[in-house]
Amino acid sequence: MKQSQPPKAADASRDEPAADGFASYTDDSDIAERESRWNYALVGSGLGVWDHNYRLDKKFYSQTWKSIRGMAPDEQADGDYEAWLQLVHPDDRDFVVNAIERQNAGDPDYHVFEYRERHRDGRWVWIECRGAPVEWDESGAAQRVVGTDTDITARKETGEMLAQLSRRLDLALQISDIGVFEADIDHETVEWDDRLIAIYGLKGFDRRTAVTAWPQAIHPDDRERVLGTVERHVHDQTGFNHEFRIVRGDGAERIIRARGAFFVDGNGCRKLIGANWDVTEEVALRNELQRAKDLAEARNRELEAAKENIEHLALHDYLTGLPNRRYLDKMVEAYSARCREEGTALAILHIDLDRFKQINDTLGHRAGDHMLKHAARVLRDSIRATDFVARIGGDEFVILCIVDTASKKIATVAERIIRELRKPIKYEGHDCRFGASIGIAIDAGARLDEKQLLLNADIALYRAKGSGRNRHEFFSNAARRSILTAKRLADEILIGLERNEFVPFYQPQFDARTLDIAGIETLARWQHPEHGLLAPDRFLDIAEDLDVVSTIDALILERAIADRKAWIGEGFAVPRISVNVSGRRLSDPQLGKKLRSLKIEPGTVSFELLESISLDDCDDAVAANLKKLKKLGIDIEVDDFGTGHASIVSLLRLSPKTLKIDRELIGRLPQSAEQRKLVRSIVEIGRSLNILVTAEGVETTDHVRILQEIGCDMLQGYALARPMPARQIPAFAREEGWRRPEGEARALQRALRRSVSRTASR
Known about the structure:
Elements: H1 28-45, E1 47-53, E2 58-61, H2 63-68, H3 81-85, H4 93-104, E3 112-118, E4 124-136, E5 142-151, H5 153-176, E6 178-184, E7 189-192, H6 194-200, H7 210-217, H8 220-236, E8 240-247, E9 253-264, E10 270-278, H9 280-298, H10 300-315, H11 325-342, E11 345-354, H12 356-363, H13 365-382, E12 388-393, E13 396-403, H14 408-421, E14 425-427, E15 430-432, E16 435-444, H15 450-466, E17 472-474, H16 477-498, E18 502-511, E19 517-528, E20 532-534, H17 540-546, H18 549-569, E21 577-580, H19 583-586, H20 591-596, E22 605-610, H21 620-631, E23 635-641, H22 648-654, E24 658-661, H23 663-666, H24 673-688, E25 692-696, H25 701-710, E26 714-716, H26 729-735, H27 742-761
Parallel strand pairs: 16-17, 19-21, 21-22, 22-23, 23-24, 24-25, 25-26
Antiparallel strand pairs: 1-2, 1-5, 3-4, 4-5, 6-7, 6-10, 8-9, 9-10, 11-13, 11-16, 12-13, 14-15, 18-19, 18-26, 19-20
Helix pairs in contact: 12-13, 13-14
């Protein structure tokens, strides 16, 4: 026989034994009645009966035993011990194997044991197994073991919950430093816990003797009151709640809060349970708070005034005293609601000061603050009492006006504001001048949207500033579309930079006397994926707003240097290439370092500067970079000369290699003697300063002839060559089509234009 087999096997309910041990002494009806009574009792008790008869190799499991495990009443167990063992919780498995062996051996310590088993629904069930041998063989080995299994999951969960609750309570008492006592009134005993003994500082006293020292620990001034209170509540069998002072065993005076509750235990004994905790710091804080409260009440009127002042500051600009953006948000909602209700129109004027930054930067923030205060006064004086004006940040202001009709009156207000703000302001001996750009948006009706109206005024302001400043503009859908178009173009420019869509085109420059190629100007083009090849006039303004012109300049320069090397490799020796450089790039303190990394051969590259960059008042950063360019062997050319404000002094200081006469001065040379005199004067100025002169816009053979007669050094224009991609330059130089008769040359130019057009379409 396998004594280690667990009490699980194939179902044998058909061989169920009699419930008691006296079936042989009673008749069948008595046996049936007793068996029925015993089965009902077992079912009602929740006990799952099992019977292992090893001698007969039979095992019985009651329906309750099966129900505990989620089995059906008529389901049979497979009797596989190892399979059943896998249902036992892994943490309990070794214990269960040992417990079954000890139980089968009759060990009284294992008549009852507990373990966890997997239920059919997947959860763990706690089972209390009770069992013992009832029959033995001649050697004393168990032949029959009988027992019961009980589902004690609920009891275990309740026990764990009570244990957890006890732990929480003990932890709460420990954290809060609360001491607990329990008094048995009928038996006149009191027991303190360790925390309560520690609170009173009663060293040498245990849990039962500490109460004897308690009356003496109470502060003498509180002793009679406290003892009387406790005695009265004990007599009345009611709880209590009071505070008193004690003198600890170490002499420290502390304040104790005590609470007690009366109850009768299960044995009918009257008991009082209570808690004490040290509230010295709490009482000190309470007293301090009371003093603070008294002080606050005494200063109530002062605080009310301060509150009003704080509310004013929260809604107003500290510098100008005007309402701020937060106040504007409230008022624009109120004004809009009123307009929707009354059927009137709401006009919003968004005002931005022009040239304010220059004043702030040159004369300091105090001067800027003075200008802002002046602007605030002008705006206040320019509006009606029913209008609203706010400073929303920096040098920006907003005015709200409710009007009956549309724009004429609002335009008058805007013009008056601009006129007043343009008047010079004296500040510490300086005449400060600035102006204002104003964007205006008006709307009315039940669908008036104040947020959109604010946005529309901002769009109109953007248009006013872009149209020359010191002016006002009304919002229109066309302006909105223009803004959206500019925004879309800006996004496309940034994407184009990522995709290397900006490419160089090249226009040769010719020696005016020999018509040999003397140089090549590099021109930026945008190979747009939808619109084809775009010249700078289509994207330069937006690129400047995005501050990426310097990036485009750098890309074009790198490509031009690479293309020049490729041309030399094909046998075309390019004398030099010129590239445009923006004012912002000239202000870059890292420009010299970036150019050195390109390893430019001295004398092969020149930078074309707009005439406005070379003015006498260019800043220190530009001047420093111009010196670095010359050290690197990069020549300087002044572009569009004759249309700006460059002086002879600035030319001497800049000492450029070349002046480029603007095409506007070249166009009417054949028809205008005055234009020829002007161009001749520029050529003579260049010759006197040892500066070469290049003429742009050379469109006809007459232009070529006249400029040769005047003594111009170099020519550039469609009469000789149009801009073309890098791959066409060597072939163009070899063909020398510009030297041919005019008709043949024009045919060649048309062929080149078609080639350029095909390149652009790709």
